[in-house]
Amino acid sequence: MVGQYDENLLSDMLPIYYAKLFPQNVFCRWLSCGNYPQPLGNRELSFTLSDDVYLRYLSINNQKELQTLFQKKCPYKLDIGAVYNTKPSIGRHDSIILARELVFDIDLTDYDEVRTCCKEAKVCGKCWKFMVIACEIIHTALRDDFGFQNILWVFSGRRGIHCWVSDHEARTLDSPGRSAIADYMCLITGGENQNKKVNLGNDNLHSSIRRAINIIEKYFKELLEDQEFLSTTERLSTFLKIIPDETLRHQIEKVLDKMPTSSLQRWESFVDIYNNYCKENVTAIRKMKHLIEEIMIQYCYPRLDINVTKGFNHLLKSPFSIHPKTGKVSIVFKPEFARDIKLDEVPTIYTLLDDASPENAQHQTNMRTAVKNFQEVVFSLEKTEALRRKKYGGNSMEF
Ligand SMILES: [Zn+2]
């Protein structure tokens, strides 16, 4: 019950949380990535303090220094930046970024044009399903299309998820490489004024798009029912604007308008009308061969903040930091269990540090699971790094 706690308690609670619950050791090991290409001390951390003072270019050489820095500054927010060729410093304008995880940031506020259950900062179990789809699509693409293995998934603490790819090839990827991956993942284009935001052309679909559609299909009916994409006049009108063929659009409008408001039934009717129309109009099918898929993507495909992925020095919230507004811990989760996350079971600093809280035991367990998930990714990363160094000789330890 976050409501019964007071944000003012944070300044007393955070030092205890950092000392007792924050997985400092694994955190330092994760950030140092086997000390290559540079040691931990060259990694930038940034803190936001209680009075909104923002400290950049902080760094630590080991866990002990992290603990000291936590106790001294008591950050309300903890962000992670890039690895430089020198110790990060505000005064050094000649420092060069050498490495940085490839990161993805997905936030439910970017879904406000399609989600109908909540708006802005609010989030519930229904709209969380958009995150489940995003996680599955991105994770599969990173693993199967790019061969990445060391992928960390983190709940942002409020209404989104972050993905960190720590494979050496990902960390040392240059800007054009990052942009290419971001663009490859990005299928939804155009701002508010663009009605049809997905265009898949007329050729057979690329296997990665087909795979993404298969993932969306698993959830699509559920989402139609949860979100009622087509149930009101306004939503139906938005939907109809996506259909490029005027004759078809009118046919659909006429039928759907007279139907019960159930989005699932309306969708099924739409699919029937579309299929019949295409059977009778050879030119129509050529113009909108993948219309069904395009609409499903427009409603459900991940909406990425691609500037975060493209950028080298974009600071991103650290795993296990506390969201100052919700008190929630940015837990690490396994992508295959994204679906099982219940937002009110995400541990908060308040419930973790309050033995009398009814959620205490459950949240302690969930916190331990999150730390274990983190350890698994970090151990696997260290193993991959050790193998890579063995393969390419001992020169990787030069600083
Ligand atoms: Zn919701």
UniProtKB/TrEMBL annotation:
Q: What class of enzyme is it?
A: transferase
EC annotation from Swiss-Prot or TrEMBL: 2.7.7.-
Quote the Gene3D superfamilies the UniProt record gives: DNA primase, PRIM domain
Supply the InterPro entries for this chain. Answer: DNA_primase_S, DNA_primase_ssu_euk/arc
GO CC annotations, alphabetized: alpha DNA polymerase:primase complex
- GO terms assigned for molecular function: DNA-directed RNA polymerase activity; metal ion binding
Q: Which UniProt keywords apply?
A: DNA replication, DNA-directed RNA polymerase, Metal-binding, Nucleotidyltransferase, Primosome, Transcription, Transferase, Zinc
Q: In Gene Ontology terms, what is a biological process of this protein?
A: DNA replication, synthesis of primer
Any Pfam family = DNA_primase_S
Q: Which SUPFAM superfamilies match?
A: Prim-pol domain
Family named by the database record: Belongs to the eukaryotic-type primase small subunit family.
**Name of the protein in its database record:** DNA primase
The species this protein was found in:
Leptidea sinapis
